[in-house]
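Worked example 3. Consider a protein that binds iron/sulfur cluster.
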Amino acid sequence: MITVTINGKKITLEKQVTVLEAARSAGIKIPTLCHHETLEAFGGCRLCLVEIEKIPKLQTSCTIYITDGMVVHSETERVVNARKAMLEFLLINHPLDCPYCDKAGECDLQDLAAKYGPTTGRFAEGKRTHPESYDDPVIVRNMERCISCTRCVRMCDKVQGASAISMVNRTSKTFVEPFSGKRYDCEYCGNCLSVCPVGAIMSRMYKHKYRPWYIDKNINTICSYCGVGCSVTAQVKGDSLVRVVPEMGKGLNKGLLCVRGRFGYDYVNSSARLKTPLIRRNGELQQVTWSEAFKYAADRLRDIKERYGSEAIAGIAGGRCANEDIYIFQKFIRGVLGSNNIDSIANFSYAPAQRFFERIFGQGVTANSIQGISNSDGIFVVGGDPTSINPILGLQIRAAYQQGIPVITVGDTPGLKRFATCMLKPNPFTETALLVSLLSELKVKKQFLGGNSSFERLINNISALSMKEVEDICGLPTDNIASAVNMLSNMTNPSIVIGKDILQRTDGHINLLLLSAIMYLINGRVYLLSEFPNEQGLVDMGCLPDMLPGGRPIEIESFKKRYEEIVGLNISSTHGLSLSGIIENAYTGKIKAIQIIGENVLSNIPDSNYVGKAFSNLELLIVQDSLMTETAGLAHVVLPSLSWLERKGSYTNLERRMQFMGKAVEGDGLEDWRIISEISKMLSFDMGYKGLEDILSEIARVSPLHKDITYNDISGDECIWPYKGEPLRHGVSLEGMDVPDIGSLLKKPAKDRVYAVFDKELFHPDSLSRKSAAISSISPEPCSRVNRALADRLSVSEGDYLNISTDAGSIEMAVKIDEDIPENVVMIPNNFEGKGIFNIMQWKLNPVLKCPVLDGNEVKLKKAEARS
Amino acid sequence: MTIKGLAKKIFLIEILKGMALTLKMMFTHAVTRQYPEEKREPFPGFRGLHALVRKEDGTARCVGCGLCAAICPSQCIHVYTSEGVSHEKIVDRYEIEVSRCVYCAFCVEACPFRAVVLTDHFEYAAYTRDDLYMGKEKLLSNWDRFMAGKKGNEYFEKFWHPLSSDFSASGNQAIFKKINSEG
Ligand code: SF4
Ligand code: SF4
Ligand code: SF4
Ligand code: SF4
Ligand code: SF4
Ligand code: FES
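Given these inputs, the predicted complex is written out as C-alpha cells:
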C-alpha cells in the first residue's frame, strides 16, 4: 500500500503508478500534451509539471512514480507559471490559425492555452513556415502546428507496429514525416491522427467541414468491415453524417481502428447505393414501387413453390446483415417457404472450423476475448495474416511480441514479419506435413492432461513424421522446426490464431485435426479469424442448412419442436443444401429461385463464371442489398435495404460478443427484416413484428443460447459468451475424424508450376471497400504479388501488368514484387469487379468440412501487353 | 374610515384630480412619436438586423470558423463549410434564424474577423418566418444596404471587442494566416 497526498487529498494505491495516474484515479486533473493512455511515457512537453515536497525542482508527473508519503501539489502558483511558460514556448512557432484549423474546439493545445496560456508572446523572431501537405489522399499534415510531442510516432511504432513515420530535423525545425516521403506508404490505420493533440495530422475526410459544436448526435455503433467488431461513434449534424470516429479507450478496440474502420465508412454515401426497388422487365431492371415489388416477389415465390416444391427454393444470407435480419430470413426460408436450403459464406470456412473444434471441445470453445491474446504466454498463427484480415486482433499479437511473448507464424504473414519470434514458411500447400511433425515432437515433450481420453487415443494413433522428412517436403530447415517445437512446448496458456487458408485445402480436415491435437497438448485457446462483422451471427441465428438458431442441429427433435411451436410454422427435418450445393443445383436447374440478403455472391465465392451461369439459369433471383453489386445486376427483383448507420441491430463478433449498432442517419430502403416480413405477409403469413424488440424477444425464446437476452444486455459494456444462455452440452464425438494417412502427405508440390493463392489484403478484403472512395483512393486497383525470381523469369517488373490464366478464365493485374513469398506462387486478391482470383479459380469441396478447396490452382502467367 | 376619507369618497376627489391632469395635458406638447411617419435615428451601437461584412473584393469576410454559431445562446446561426479546390475553407451556407435571435451581439463579439454585425436597421417585420430565415446572400445585402462605407468601419472601431489592437504581433507572425482580415 502506498499513500500519497495530492492537493491535500490522501490517496492510497496498491500498485506503484505515476503521480499522474494517481491523481487521475482520484479525479484530480493534471494537464498533459505528450502523455497518452495507450502510449508509454515520454516526458517531453512538461505541461504536467507538479510540485513535490522535498524535491526542489518541479517534476513531470507523467514520468515520476509515487512513493509512500509523497506530498504533491498540482496547481500552485509556481506550477501554473511554469505551465504558462511552457505554453509560451510552444506558441513561439505555432501558427495560431485556430479559426481555420479543423482541430479547434477539440484541441488540447488550444484548451490549455485558454486556461494557462499567456495572451501575448514575447518572442519576435517570427514563425517557421511549412507548407501544408496534401500529397496523401486521406491524411493531411500541417507541420506548422506540430508541437513535437511524438505521440504519433510512438503510436505508429509501439502500438500499430507499422513504424512508418518519424520525427525529422532538430530544434524548432522538427517535424513529422512518413519514411516514404510525402505520401504515406503504410497501413493507413490513422491511429496517429487520432492521438495528435493538435491539428498537425488530420483526416481529409471531414476537412473544413467539422466543428465539435456542430454535432447534434453521437451514435455508438460497430464497424461493419470485419469480425473484430470495433466500437466507433458516428457524428451527425442535422440529418447528415459528419464523420465516424473512435472514442479513445472505448470498446474492445480501446479506440484504435484499422484503415477500413477509420476511412472506409463513406461507402454509405456511395453513388452505387440502391434507392428504389427494381424488377427485371424485358431483360432490364426497372424502377417500381415497394408494393409492386413485394407483390411481384411474393407471387413469383408462391408460383415456384407450387410448381416445383419448396426444395426448389434457397436462401443465401450475408455476413454484414444484423442478427435480427438473418434470424427472420432463416425463419422465412425455413418456415414460410418450407425449405432448409439456407446457407451463407460463413459455411465456407468459419462455421466448419468452429464446428470441428466444438465437436471435440464443446460449444463456445472459440469464444475467447481478443484482449486475452496479449495476456497469453505464446501465440501460434496459422492460415492467414491476422494483421490484414482482423487488423485490431493483429495488433494484439504485435503488442504481445513487443512484450517478449514468443510468436510463431506459419505461412505468408507479411504483417507479422517484424513481430514473429519464429517464422515457418513451408512450401506452398505443405502445412499438413509441418503440423504433423510439430505434433509428433510435442507428443514427446508434453504430457496428456487426461481429460479427453478418446481424443488422446486418436492423437496417439497419428503416426509421426521425422523432421528430416519434413525438411524435405516443406523445405524448412530442421532447426527452424525444432525451435518452434521448443517454444510451443514451453507455453502454458497460448493463443492459437487460425485463418481460413489452412482449412480450404484438400487436407483441410486433417489440418484442423492436427491443430486440435496441438491445441489440446499445449492447452491453447483458439481464435478463428473472421472476415465479416456478423459471421458468428450467421452461425448462431441458424443460417446454416443443418443448424437452427442457437447452434442446435436440426435433427434434435425436441428443439425443432419447440422452435416450431414458438414461431407457429412447420420446419422440414431434412438437411438443406449448403451454399455450394445451392449454386450447383441452380446450375443444373434443380433450384429455381434464390433469395439473397446482403451478399455479393458472384464476387465473393470462387469461380464467378460458374456462379454467374448458375444464377442466369434461375427463374427467380431476389437480391436485397444496399449497394448495386454484380449479383444484384443479375437479379429479377432488387430490394434496396438500409445500410449500416441507417438502421439499428446487433452483431456477434468472432469472440461471440454481441454488440449493438445504432442508427445515425436516414436512408433509402427498408431493413432486411421488414422487407422479408412484408413479402411473408403477402404469402399469408403475417410475422407481426412491430420493431426490433419483438424480434429479439422471439430470438430469446427460440435460441437457448440467447435466453432472456435484451437490448439492455447487448448495448451494455460486455455482452459476452455465454450471455445468460445455455450452450449446447454434448459429449465428444470423434465420429468421422479418422487418423490421417500420413503416407499421403509425403507428396511435394511441383517446383516448375505456379499456383494461385488467394491474397486477403488489408485495404480491400472483399467487394465492399471498393465502394468507399477513401479506401479506393488509397488503393485504387488490385495488385498481384510475385517473388523476384519469378518476376525475372517472366521479365516483368513492379508496376507492369501480368496476364494470369487458368481453364476458368484469365485476368490482368498489376504486379508487385515481394521477396517473402515462395517462387512458385502468385498472390492474387479478390476485390475488384471482374479482376479477382475468384474469376479464374475452380474449386471442389472438402469431403469432411464441406468447404471449398482452393489449393493446387495452377495458373499460367505471362507479361501483359503494355497499357496506356 | 375617517371623516376625511368619507368626504373624498362622496365628492369623487380622486376622479376630479385625474380630470384636472387630463385637462392640463391637453395644453402641452405630445411626447409620443408618430411612427412610421416620424422615424427616430437609432443610437450608435443599436443592435438590429444582422449583416455579413462584404470585403472590397465583393466576397464575404467570414472564414467559416463557426465561433459565432458556438457562442449564440439561442443557437440560431448555422454555418456550413467545405474544402475548396485549392484546399481553402469555403463557407457554403451561412444562415441566421433572425426570428429566434435575442440580439445579444455575442456573435459580433466572438467573431475574430469582424465579419458579422448587427446593423441599426430594425424595420424588417415580415409575414412569414421564412422571410426571417436569412442566408448568406441576404445577409451580405444587408451589409450593402445598412453598413457599407464608413459606417461599418466606424461601428467596428467603437463596438467590436476585442479591438484589433489587442492582437499585436511581431512582423511575420502568422496570426490568422491565409486570412485577410482587412478589407
Ligand atoms: S492546432 Fe489547436 S491551437 Fe493550433 S491552430 Fe489548430 S486549434 Fe489552434
Ligand atoms: S504531428 Fe501531432 S502527434 Fe505528431 S509530434 Fe506533432 S503534434 Fe505530436
Ligand atoms: S479491425 Fe475490423 S472491426 Fe476493427 S476497424 Fe478494422 S475492419 Fe473494423
Ligand atoms: S445576437 Fe446573440 S442570439 Fe442573436 S444571433 Fe447573435 S449570438 Fe445569436
Ligand atoms: S465568427 Fe465570424 S468568421 Fe467565424 S463563422 Fe462567424 S462570422 Fe464567420
Ligand atoms: S505530459 Fe508529462 S511531460 Fe508531457
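Take a moment to read the result before moving on. The first strand of chain A starts at residue 2 and ends at 6. The CA atoms of residues 105 and 213 of chain A lie 8 Å apart.
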